[in-house]
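Retro notes
What went well: the complex prediction finally ran end to end.
Inputs used:
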Amino acid sequence: MRHPDERQIALYAGGEAGWGERFWMGRHVANCPECRRLADGIRRDRQAIREEAAELPQGLNWDRLAAEMTANIHVGLEAGECVGGRQRRVVRVTWRPALAAAGLAALLVGGFYLNVPADQRSSLGRGVVQLWDRLDGQSTMHAGISLESTRNGIQVSENGAAMTMMNPSSEPAVVVVNTRGSLRARYVDDDTGQVTITNVYAQ
Amino acid sequence: MAAVIAPAMLWAQADVRGSLKIDFPKDSPVSVISSDWGQSRPEVRGGAMVLDLHTQLSLRNSGERRIRGVTLMVLAQAVTPGGKASVTVPSLDVGPGETFPVRIDLRLLRPIQGGNSAVQVVLDGVLFDDLSFYGPNRLESRRAMMVWELEAQRDRRHFKQVLEQAGTEGLQKEILASVARIGDRSQFGMQMVRAGSGRATTYEPERDVQFAFVQFPDSPIEPVSGMARVSGSEAREPRIQVKNRSTKPVRYFELGWIVEDEQGRRFLAGSMPAELNLGPGQKTQVVQDTGLRFPERTGIKNMTGFVNSVEYADGRFWIPSRAEMAVGPLQSALAPSAEEQRLTQIYRKKGLKALVEELKKF
């Protein structure tokens, strides 16, 4: 008769053997007194160890134990503060999803831009250019604005709307273009006798 | 159509007085006493609404210094979103507590259904007799009013010298010469153009035209060379090389731009301001992406440049003397200064005696 080794008997005695092994070992131990004695011995030892571990040590001082545990918790907290904050987990960005997201965004923006009516599109474009120039620190003229002198005065106009600084004087005004984006007119007011200088700006 | 126009007219008539909002800072040395609306009125023209606003503001000097100039900024953002305007009255002499008028005459044109026509008037700056300044200065009005005030001081000094040396007859002769200059001066319609905008003509070849410069011996800035692209009645993208020949750094200068047409008529058409930081002896090139356009068939033949004003880094200014301005092409091309124009008007309206009294005030 082939006997199982001690490891198999210990697993069987502790109830930790697999289903098939437990069946086979059960039959063997029932018919083999030597192996049954070994298995019983192992069971008794386990029971004795379990009972001993369950008992409290002699003369245990609960107050002292509580004080030691509190002190250990404080020491642990202070040690944690010395170590510093928890390190953030670095998330690795892979290029393929990023490129796919960028492509999708470009497609959506392009589709939106192409579906906007032409006049609103040009207005949007001007706005973007202005914003870009402002961020870039440049002061450029508004692309849609026109400055000109007319027989009534000097005028700033845009998209069919206009503001004209009139010349109420009986004599023509002195008009000068400022190359930084403005138009200036100077005249003497007939009523007040004051020199009046008007400007229209495109920036 | 009538259903659209009638309510728009009614609304606009009710809105004329509410169209102008005057907004001065609480600590402003100038306060608004009253505003007279005169003949402000709305008018429908085709598919557009025209709103004429004529107001005379009565302002009081509520500070303690004498006022030499005031600039008001005019904003009509609902009509021209990117555009703004200003009204400046230089050559003032307003004492503390005194009042003075400022007229604002403007016309707004917009589509009938184009929203409201609200106009905002805000104070941009006040220049005092000690050349100190108050205001947000969003339009760089401090610099402009400072130059006009220095020109005014220069010209008043000149006429007072004439009065002292040649008496009232001499003064009259001088002022009549000024009246003649104003009358002889040519003025064309003008438009400002920018780089990249369409050219006025496609059949006129574009060419580079060199500037001729009038040099002033005591000017801190010396124009060395310059050119602009000229095509027919249009000149654009001026490029000027200048040198700081003074012993102090310069932070701003302005060049006058005189144009001579094919009939030989000369006039001051433009000014090229430049902000920079130019140390003594240094050279730099100033390039601007704008230009000017005249009516068709006003061919540009020659161009002349001269230094109109300079601001040193320490805030002091230089302007040319009257003697320097009275030579070469400048004499026929330049209009008299704002102050000379005002003094001339006093002579024309009130006579020689009133002019002498005016000069004695300063």
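What we learned: Confidence is low (pLDDT under 50) at residues 133-140 of chain A.
What to try next: split runs per interface for comparison.
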